TrEMBL record:
The chain crosses the membrane at residues 33-50, 57-78, 84-103. Belongs to the drug/metabolite transporter (DMT) superfamily. Small multidrug resistance (SMR) (TC 2.A.7.1) family. Gdx/SugE subfamily. SUPFAM superfamilies: Multidrug resistance efflux transporter EmrE. This is Guanidinium exporter. It comes from the Bacteria. GO terms for molecular function: transmembrane transporter activity.
């Protein structure tokens, strides 16, 4: 269950990272509230996952999911660069996340 918490925490990390763009410096109420809620949920799920997953592994996976998710979202929704080297780098992050899961001794 800890890995599910961690994956969902990573998705909410993407949500708040993207949400910050829409808050306009936290001057827009609805995007600000949604962003802050995403932050709270993300941190809560990360802390729940860390009960069973080592802190270094959990944090690396959490940030990796966030980094890849936000970068892909940027490519799809904000027309950011889709350069092959950028995509290869993102795939390296994904392989690192998968590797950490494979070598983890927790559930």
């Amino acid at each position: 269950m800890a890995w599910i918490y961690l994956a969902v925490a990573g998705v909410f990390e993407c949500g708040w990272a993207i949400g910050i763009k829409y808050t306009e410096g936290f001057t827009r109420v609805t995007p600000s509230v949604l962003t802050i809620l995403s932050m709270i949920i993300s941190f809560w799920l990360l802390s729940a996952a860390m009960k069973d997953i080592p802190v270094g592994t959990a944090y690396a996976v959490w940030t990796g999911i966030g980094a890849v998710g936000v970068a892909v979202f940027g490519m799809v929704c904000f027309d950011e660069s889709r350069d092959i080297l950028r995509i290869i780098c993102l795939l390296l992050i994904v392989s690192g996340i998968a590797g950490l899961k494979l070598v983890s001794s927790s559930s």
